[in-house]
TrEMBL record:
GO terms, biological process: alanyl-tRNA aminoacylation
Main location group: cytoplasm
Whole-protein residues included: 2 to 471 of 879
Highest taxon listed in the record's lineage: Bacteria
Subcellular location: Cytoplasm
Cofactor: how bound: Binds 1 zinc ion per subunit.
Source taxonomy: Bacteria, Bacillati, Bacillota, Clostridia, Peptostreptococcales
Cofactor(s) the protein needs: Zn(2+)
Protein name: Alanine--tRNA ligase
Amino acid sequence: EKMSLNDIRSSFLNFFASKNHYVGKSYSLVPENDKSLLLINSGMAPLKPFFMGIDTPPNKRMVTCQKCIRTGDIENVGKTARHGTFFEMLGNFSFGDYFKVESIQWGWEYVTEHLKMPVEKLWVSVYEQDDDAYEIWNKTIGVPAERIVRLGKADNFWEIGLGPCGPCSEIYFDRGEKYGCGHENCKPGCDCDRYVEFWNHVFTQFDKDEQGNYNPLPKPNIDTGMGLERVACIMQGVDSIFEVDTMQQILEGVTTLSNQKYGVSSKSDISIRIITDHIRSVTFMVSDGIMPSNEGRGYVLRRLLRRAAKHGKQLGIQDTFLTALVDRVIAVSGQAYPELIEKQEYIKKVISVEEDRFRETIDQGSEILRGFVEELKQQKKTCLSGENAFKLYDTYGFPIELTKEILEEERIEIDEAGFKEEMEKQRVRARSARQNMEDEGWKEDIFSKLSADIRSTFEGYGNTQTEGKV
Ligand code: ATP
Ligand code: MG
Ligand code: MG
Ligand code: MG
């Protein structure tokens, strides 16, 4: 009998409750009193005041399952087996209480005795200079040296600017050669989907000062994060997080509405997965009070929602469809997040209004594009100028992929170089506009990794000419 995602969540919370942890609820996706972050992206993020001693935690040991959004992963969504923009992070935390030994021991106990993952499939990584962690894994736990890798700062050291920081240690599951990239040095830390990183243990033991010194903290902390969808993927033996029991329900909604089969074409599979993911982000964001807008979180919401709608259109869905998927998200997650059920009608209303607005944009853009095509045909030309392609995209918010698709049918090309040139000009204009922004939340540069279509529209923000166009 395979463990469902919802069962895994409660089993994790119960396990750490049995180790005297206070079981906390997920915090909102909207950070409280934290201007450094646009959206909560880890279990630890909302607990920062406890780690920094600004606030007193309910207990020195705590466990949560936290809803998270990582727009920085958007390019991976649909392409890797393991990334979503929305996911749930299981985590146990120690505020100056237990440290490395317990964190590693309990982690191992949970994974091998409760989840019963086969020991020989498990690998671990430690920070290259963290001999303590290496010894614990190797000597105390008994993980053979062949399955412990030492990784550098980029992968296994956690720090954000100054303040508390420290080495990490990750647990990986080897899904076997069929998921590998085939390189001879493919091992944990490789970008492919063979060794899935599922649990990160952060050992916050230093305090980095202005001079760049790493001073030992008198009372080090523990902060761990385990992706619930990833564990479920491993436990259920499915190919990707999109096929775990809960996600599958949403994915099937997408295939039914679009009348597509999953697993037939990689292009439509990517669209199917993107919609499956984005509708979760959108549903949870709206339930936490975020409204579509042209700035900040509202902008992230708007772009994710429209990106989902656009992929739906590309899959051939004619009608509006997002609210039907919202029902599926709530059906599988509502028990764990009762706010979804309480606000179900409200969430659907907000999403349907925005989806309608987007359709108007699409209708208007299609009309204008039809005009361009007519003109080109009359002039016996077969290439749309970069300027016009950009105008459609920038002024009318018409997705460039749709322009391409429609033009392909007419055997017309886009002047790509010209289009890029216009984008670049826009980027420069936006950069100077942005220098005037004071909102601290932007420092994180959360948009830098959004896909090109999303990014350049964002960079128009602050420029009054582009206000209201998305
Ligand atoms: P990866 O290297 O695979 O991108 P990460 O090192 O960025 O993961 P962490 O910041 O260590 O991830 O987060 C802790 C855990 O949260 C990960 O071990 C993973 O299980 C999960 N996780 C991280 N990002 C995602 C995501 N985009 N979608 C689903 N789960 C995620
Ligand atoms: Mg990552
Ligand atoms: Mg990683
Ligand atoms: Mg990690």
